[in-house]
Design brief:
This protein is mainly alpha-helical and 328 residues long. Helix 1 packs antiparallel against helix 3 and helix 2 packs across helix 3. It contains 14 helices and no strands. The longest helix is centred in the first third of the chain and has 35 residues.
Amino acid sequence: MLARRRTLVATALVAMVLGITCVLSLALGSKAIGLRDLAEAIHSGGDPHVREVLAARVPRTLCGLVAGAALASSGAAIQTVTRNPLGDPGVLGLTSGAAAGIVTVTSIPGLAGLQLVGGAFAGAAAATVAVMVLGSFGRGTDATRLVLAGAVTTAVAVAYSQAVSLRHKAAFDALRYWSAGSLAVGDFLDWWPVVVIAVAGAGLFAVGRGLDAVALGDEVAAGLGHHPARVRALTLTAVALMTAAATAITGPIVFVGLAAPHLARRFAQGSARALIGLCCLIGPVLMLLADVIGRLVLRPAEVPVGVVTALLGAPLLLAVVRRSRGVL
């Protein structure tokens, strides 16, 4: 009961922080917008220039909300299913696979943004299949073997991306963009990746009890009536879809999927569903704060959000792990 109350209080506080972060994302940048001008632009039109600036910031704010929630909840699910505190979508090769798919479609002339998203899905799906085959779920894969399979898949996907990009200028330009990561998505943000993330996220919640059981060990999970291999397969499928959609929108963003679950466990403890739900709030906070910092440090120029999360995420994660005294 106390743990549940603590989780609810933490969720409410993080939701308030997320609201403040959204306001900062809309107000701050190369040109700052006052709160009064922001409110007028939202409700009654206001100054045309303010509306123009706001029209550019609303999509990237929505992008940060969706992609941050997807990456953070994916990281929480992977850490739970592999029982590895350093797990994130990149550990299992899903991010590298999605990027490899994008490089593949950009090497083919004439493909539009919809095919870029499809390429990310195909790449992440191929990485998921590779991890499943190498990890041999049907023979009772343990967490260590799963992580090793992800490392092999990552190495192959990175090598493939580099080989293709060296032969195709368009693929090289795309790889350079995606490897930095950005919320300035323009036409890349459309409706169906958001729908895919929402459906896959609902799937993660559906297997929440199975994740709780698998976190205790395969033997315990089987004794409780769950099928560990099936739980892992469903979890990886949902994570692959969410990671592919987020990567297609923003490019590979590091440390959000790794740091958000650790922060969530610091704020509250509970079931896998509670952890994933809290990560859906913490992830966007991290993503949008990194984007705001990237806009301000070198304005009017911008630092890509992926660079900011890499520079700030490492010391943040180290501080959280040191203060947790090894308890995750």
